[in-house]
């Protein structure tokens, strides 16, 4: 599914925006998947609040996050406890599968970022900025001592 998202982003940028080179495709996929998960969670929360009046918004978010990550503790079950379980079972199954796909895509993108060294590059750039600050500090000390000797 991640290849499909990359293909979709490439086609949108080349056809609609007229760009020849697609840059930052992993970052754009991360944004796309994050928005998809947030949208699925929001829709799930709205349906849960409608079906389960005693759940708070936090309970509903918790329920859908646990369901989408396949942890499934069983303390909150979407669609369970309502009178329309048989009618909505197929819809909940399709919705849960969509959420599972989106969550696995998110984990896949995070794995791609880790494997290509994005996190290491940011770590090294912070190290270089600290060295530059130390060098600037020693240059200022040298300038102060040179001025004092004059």
Topology, pairings included?
Layout: H1 2-16, H2 25-51, H3 57-68, H4 85-115, H5 118-149
Helix pairs in contact: 1-2, 2-3, 2-4
Distance between the termini: 70 Å
Query: Per CATH, what is the topology of the domain at 36-138?
Result: Helix Hairpins
Radius of gyration, taken over Cα atoms and rounded to an integer in Å: 25 Å
So, CATH architecture of the domain at 36-138?
A: Orthogonal Bundle
Globally, the shape reads: elongated
The unreliable regions are 132-140, 143-149
Beta-strand proportion = under 5%
Helix/strand-derived category reads mainly alpha
Average pLDDT for all residues: 74
Number of helices: 5
The helical percent reads over 70%
Kindly state the number of beta strands. Answer: 0
Profile the largest sheet. none
Give the C-level CATH assignment of the domain at 36-138: Mainly Alpha
Order of helices and strands: HHHHH
């Amino acid at each position: 599914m991640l290849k499909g998202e990359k293909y979709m982003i490439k086609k949108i940028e080349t056809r609609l925006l007229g760009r020849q080179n697609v840059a930052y495709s992993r970052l754009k996929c991360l944004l796309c998947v994050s928005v998809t998960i947030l949208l699925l969670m929001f829709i799930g929360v709205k349906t849960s609040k409608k079906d389960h009046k005693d759940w708070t918004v936090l309970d509903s978010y918790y329920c859908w996050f646990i369901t989408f990550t396949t942890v499934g503790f069983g303390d909150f079950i979407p669609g369970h406890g309502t009178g329309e379980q048989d009618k909505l079972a197929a819809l909940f199954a399709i919705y849960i599968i969509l959420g599972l796909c989106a969550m696995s895509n998110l984990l896949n993108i995070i794995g791609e970022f880790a494997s290509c060294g994005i996190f290491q590059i940011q770590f090294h750039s912070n190290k270089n900025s600290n060295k530059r600050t130390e060098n600037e500090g020693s240059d200022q000390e040298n300038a102060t001592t040179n001025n004092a000797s004059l």
